[in-house]
Design a protein that fits this description.
Layout (H helix, E strand, L loop, with lengths): L17 H7 L4 H14 L11 H9 L7 H10 L9 H9 L7 H12 L7 E2 H14 L6 H15 L6 E2 L1 H10 L15 H4 L2 H4 L3 H4 L2
Helix pairs in contact: 1-2, 4-6, 6-9, 7-8
Length: 213
């Protein structure tokens, strides 16, 4: 096969061998190699240092590096496994693995729980749920009245908080998701199954040019 692993190739910081990452994720070695091409593109889109910074991550997800977005921030934080403010290649592949169609549903449920647990307390509280609902509505350009938003939050929280103690624990969240599977629908990206074809063309048509028009 082509010389993806050329000895002269410049490795990004935190690079890990595709064979290692393939053994720990649902990806094959060739898929990990394709992901490395994607990673190199993303990690050099604003700051060319072989690491994905929050602005680069936000631009890749939402085509906007200036607008603050709680949803993008939370996903970035969960990808940043070392919690050092950047995403290395290994972190990128392991985190993306959760979105693979073959990843265990339990991993997807756990990821969404941590997404909503904004204050890292091990529970989802009503205010956290409301903040995420507002962020998702904002990202979808949906404008709802405050009263309707409160109704959505109240209904969701009361249904999920089966113990009635004012917070949602991982067990309650798992049970709630099992009754509302649409909550983790976005946790599966079908094209990750055919990643060698889908990437890196996925980002080759970078929107940088259009954004500068």
């Amino acid at each position: 096969m082509g010389c993806f692993c050329s000895k002269n190739a410049r490795r990004t910081p935190g690079y890990e061998e595709p064979t290692v990452l393939a053994a720990e994720t649902p990806f094959t070695v060739s898929e990990v190699e394709a992901l490395y091409e994607l990673f190199k593109k993303l990690s050099s889109s604003i700051i060319d240092d072989g690491l994905i910074h929050k602005e680069e991550f936000q631009f890749a997800l939402f085509r906007n590096r200036n607008k603050r977005n709680l949803f993008a921030d939370r996903i970035f934080d969960l990808f940043d496994l070392k919690r050092n403010g950047v995403i290395e290649f290994g972190e990128f592949v392991r985190s993306l693995g959760v979105f693979h169609p073959n990843a265990p549903e339990e991993d997807k449920i756990s990821f969404t729980f941590r997404l909503y647990d904004l204050r890292h307390t091990g529970y989802i509280e009503r205010e956290e749920l409301k903040e995420m609902v507002l962020a998702l509505l904002h990202e979808s350009d949906l404008i709802l009245s405050d009263e309707f938003v409160e109704q959505i939050v109240d209904k969701t929280f009361n249904d999920a908080d089966s113990k009635g103690d004012g917070r949602i624990d991982p067990e309650e969240w798992k049970e709630f998701v099992s009754k509302n599977p649409s909550l983790i629908k976005n946790m599966t990206l079908p094209y990750l199954k055919d990643i060698t074809l889908a990437f890196p063309s996925f980002v080759i048509t970078s929107e940088v040019e259009q954004s500068e028009i």
